[in-house]
Amino acid sequence: MSPGPDQSDPVDPVAERVRSMAHTMLSSKQGRWSLPHARSALRRDLPPDEPALWMALDLYRLYPDDAPLDAPTFMRAATAVAAAAQLWARAGITHRATSPERDTTLAAALARIARSRPGTQERFTRLLQSSTLDEVRAGLRSLLHRFPADSRLDVSALAADFYALQSPAASRTVRQRWAHVFTQTQARSRRTPASAHGKADPS
User: Fold this and answer.
1) Which of 27, 84, 175, 190 has most Cβ atoms within 10 angstroms of its Cβ?
2) pTM of the model
3) Which contiguous run of DSSP H or E holds residue 37?
4) Quick check: 164 and 81 in contact, CB under 8 A?
């Protein structure tokens, strides 16, 4: 199993289910998201809260046997999964869950990219001023296109963050954590020399 969220944060069981389901669907070569009709739906210009998109993604996995979700919670969870899946499909980035050896969450990946791509930090700062999921999605579209072709991103962690961003109180916590991880990774990167080829570490 891939690692869970930062252990210093209280774990929201629904956010963890969102993360786990997204990881499973992205990691399996036979996963539902790899099917042509699912990829086609993800690339269409549908809002992530569109029920037809949820059906295409087969989101029944969000329902645990012992803890059924009420309608508002399911809608937040389904919207989060769909939003992350859309960004993954459109940006063409490879999903790689964070591990103790490599932090592939959004903020850490962007901090490494900022070493060689001027303007990344300024764009990320503007993203941190967004307070709703729609605003964050709009800011992420341009940021994700700055990722090198061989980049790895923990899309499942992003899905869990998207779930939290739909709650005003939790949204602030997510953005604070992103700022902390970005700054921490940036500090570490500045202490690490670039590769022999003069390039920053890949994401």
Assistant:
1) 84
2) 0.85
3) helix 36-43
4) no
CA atoms within 13 A on the CB side of 76: 19
- Over residues 146-201, the pLDDT tens digits come to 888 778 999 999 999 999 999 998 999 999 999 999 999 989 877 765 543 334 45
Cβ-contact 151, 93 below 8 angstroms: yes
H or E segment to which residue 95 belongs: strand 94-95
Neighbours of 130 (CB within 10 A): 17
CB < 8 Å & 24+ apart, contacts of 30-39: 32/57, 32/58, 33/57, 33/85, 33/88, 33/89, 39/89
| CB count in 10 Å sphere of residue 66 | 4
User: Could you read off the pLDDT of 20-62 as tens digits, one per residue?
Assistant: 989 988 886 545 666 666 777 787 888 999 998 888 888 877 8
**Could you read off the pLDDT of 64-122 as tens digits, one per residue?**
777 788 999 999 999 999 999 998 888 878 899 999 999 999 999 999 999 888 899 99
Helix extents (H) in 58-132: 71-91, 106-113, 120-128
